[in-house]
């Protein structure tokens, strides 16, 4: 159990709390601090999603009020990511952070796979630093300042400075460096409020700060997509049926954000209008995967919202209000009652407005044009699609009453007298005595099957003829071009003759396979030289040795994916790569030599087991190459130290200090 634990300051990064704890206890090694905090020396004090929090809480003093959930919500970056992740993944993230999750949390959040990295160094605001020292007696790392996309301090409207503390990832654990121990500059660069780019950065910081204070937001990906779709419709960037005006959207987005700003935020629009590589198009189409929060914040700001307004919107009304909707069948006992549970938007828009279709279980179906402008609009019938069995049974019942006029029957059924007569003729109802005076209906007005009139038949014939004629004029015409030439005919056929239209659409043309313009032979030669140079730099770099692996070389060249997926097209690079990659034994030999140099600089003659333990090659002590290099290193140390000022071999404690 820990004897004490530092007080957590407002919006302090949990990493910062651990670092201040290390400053207080002043243990001789970093591993001792990790052992004390996490109960193991294999822990990694990460900035984004620290793990083993249950273990830490169990070691806190008895009077501590800190819990794992409180640490996660108030002192980690998870609240910034969670509103844009599925609820199931958020729960998995929390569990990974509570237990020994290691890099699992970073992988589940998508941080490691994203093009937007965590800032390379811990950042700070010079004015916040002075205020923290005056208020708390020391400075600390603020959580908000470490978020990707946050480039300015929201409180003081100045740009953030980078410290000397690198946020290293991978095999090397972060050292616990407090803000007091780090090298911090004092340069202050203020935000220029009239500058539009600076205004955008301030709004991003404001939205990020609001998200950090909302730990319980959980919105599924489909709900995010629906909110975007509603805002795009309001801006005229999408139709009521959900089709996106891609070119218009890309043009307006590019005009709103400058290329320099998007490059600064690592959010460039790549791939043009290709959804797979363009993050903006992935957000405004049905979701497949979670996207980085910064992408969402940029789109939200572009659509004229703040994060608070986006996640706490007023009750969203559809074009036809909220269901259920009224059944407008006068023959039904539930007339004007809200019993219709589904409203389907029509595929065709009339004058840019949506058409809603409502179908009741009684068989009555109608359509009307939206959006609704008043509560009375929900009782308006634009066009009756089908009357249904209940309406027809009511007509048959009223028709038997010879004393009731056709006008009265029409009034009770909500139609005109001509419609009553036409449906009576379709149902083959006999005329009563009072109706014998009526003249027979013209054949063109009779209803057969689906109420096909002569005018309707002529309209269908004209639309079909124009459509087929346009297809014959150009054999290679596409559906998109054909729709542009005959928009009215296409809309009519789509609504009234869809089955015929499906059979008479132009065949989809296969796109010609794009020929690559990459000179793979030249690229192979360039990367072969680059791989050899990168391997040499890794081997000769100062500091603790780093194993020369394919991933390490790819990371140094910024081409990890290329070396994984396209190596079959670069045989020379593959050959060089296989020759420079180190085996486990080769890497161990370099570690032994590097450790021997450290002992020589410290003027210490270690024992064999001390050298192997510090070089972390004890598990390979029986490998002949390692055994030989250890023996050579010890002989070299004896010779050099004896030639200089002889000293007695020190204890292991001194050798490791």
Describe this structure in words.
Helix content is 46%, strand content 5%. Helix 23 runs parallel beside helix 26 and helix 27 packs parallel to helix 29. The protein is elongated and about 130 Å long. The protein has a 4-stranded antiparallel sheet, with no helix packed on it. Strands 1-4 form a two-stranded antiparallel ribbon. A two-stranded antiparallel ribbon has the order 2-3. It is mainly alpha-helical and 657 residues long. The protein contains 30 helices and 10 strands. The chain has 5 domains: 183 residues, no CATH class; 93 residues, no CATH class; 50 residues; 63 residues; 72 residues, no CATH class. The two termini are 25 Å apart. The C terminus is likely disordered.
At a glance:
The chain has 30 helices and ten strands. By secondary structure, it is mainly alpha-helical. The protein starts with 13 loop residues before the first helix and ends with a helix.
């Amino acid at each position: 159990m820990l004897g004490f634990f530092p007080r957590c300051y407002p919006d302090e990064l949990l990493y910062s709390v651990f670092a201040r704890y290390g400053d207080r206890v002043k243990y001789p090694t970093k591993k001792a601090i990790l052992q004390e905090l996490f109960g193991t020396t294999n822990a990694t004090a990460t900035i984004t999603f620290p793990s083993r929090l249950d273990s830490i809480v169990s070691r806190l003093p008895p009077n501590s009020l800190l819990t794992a959930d409180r640490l996660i919500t108030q002192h980690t970056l998870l609240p910034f990511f969670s509103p844009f992740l599925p609820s199931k993944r958020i729960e998995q993230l929390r569990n990974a952070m509570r237990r020994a999750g290691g890099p699992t949390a970073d992988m589940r959040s998508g941080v490691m796979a994203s093009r937007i990295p965590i800032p390379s160094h811990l950042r700070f605001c010079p004015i916040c630093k002075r205020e923290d020292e005056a208020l708390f007696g020391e400075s600390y790392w603020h959580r908000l300042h470490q978020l990707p996309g946050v480039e300015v301090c929201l409180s003081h409207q100045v740009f953030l400075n980078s410290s000397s503390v690198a946020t290293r990832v991978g095999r090397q654990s972060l050292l616990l460096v407090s803000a007091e121990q780090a090298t911090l500059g004092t340069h202050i660069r203020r935000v220029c409020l009239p500058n539009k780019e600076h205004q955008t950065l301030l709004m991003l910081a404001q939205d990020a700060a609001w998200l950090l204070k909302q730990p319980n937001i959980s919105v599924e990906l489909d709900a995010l997509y629906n909110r975007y779709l509603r805002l795009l419709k309001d801006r005229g960037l999408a139709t009521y049926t959900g089709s996106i005006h891609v070119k218009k959207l890309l043009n307006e987005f590019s005009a709103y954000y400058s290329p320099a700003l998007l490059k600064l935020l690592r959010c460039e629009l790549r791939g043009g209008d290709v959804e797979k590589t363009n993050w903006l198009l992935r957000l405004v189409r049905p979701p497949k995967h979670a996207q980085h929060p910064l992408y969402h914040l940029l789109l939200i700001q572009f659509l004229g919202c703040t994060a608070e307004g986006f996640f706490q919107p007023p009750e969203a009304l559809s074009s036809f209000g909220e269901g259920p909707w009224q059944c407008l069948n006068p023959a039904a006992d539930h007339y004007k009652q809200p019993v219709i549970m589904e409203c389907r938007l029509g595929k065709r828009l009339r004058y840019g407005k949506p058409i809603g279709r409502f179908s009741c279980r009684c068989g009555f179906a109608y359509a009307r044009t939206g959006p609704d402008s008043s509560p009375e609009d929900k009782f308006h019938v634009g066009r009756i699609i089908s009357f249904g069995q209940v309406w027809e049974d009511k007509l048959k019942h009223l028709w038997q009453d010879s004393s009731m006029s056709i006008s009265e029957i029409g009034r009770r059924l909500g139609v005109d007298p001509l419609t009553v007569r036409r449906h009576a003729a379709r149902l083959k109802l006999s005329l009563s005595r009072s109706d014998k005076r009526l003249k027979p209906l013209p054949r063109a007005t009779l209803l057969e099957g689906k109420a096909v009139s002569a005018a309707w038949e002529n309209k269908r014939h004209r639309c079909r003829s124009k459509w087929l004629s346009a297809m014959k004029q150009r054999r290679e015409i596409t559906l998109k071009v054909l729709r542009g030439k005959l928009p009215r005919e296409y809309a009519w056929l789509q609504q009234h003759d869809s089955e015929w239209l499906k059979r008479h659409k132009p065949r989809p043309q296969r796109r010609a396979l794009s020929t690559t313009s990459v000179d793979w032979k030249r690229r192979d030669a360039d990367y072969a030289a680059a791989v050899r140079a990168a391997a040499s730099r890794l081997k000769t770099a100062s500091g603790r040795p780093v194993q020369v692996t394919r991933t390490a070389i790819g990371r140094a060249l910024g081409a990890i994916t290329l070396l994984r997926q396209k190596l079959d097209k670069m045989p020379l690079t593959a050959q060089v790569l296989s020759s420079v990659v180190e085996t486990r034994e080769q890497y161990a030999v370099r570690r032994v030599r590097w450790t021997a140099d450290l002992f020589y600089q410290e003027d210490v003659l270690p024992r064999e087991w001390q050298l192997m333990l510090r070089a972390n090659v004890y598990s390979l002590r029986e490998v002949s190459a390692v055994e030989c290099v250890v023996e050579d290193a010890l002989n070299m140390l004896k010779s050099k130290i004896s030639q200089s000022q002889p000293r007695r071999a020190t204890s292991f404690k001194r050798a490791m200090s």
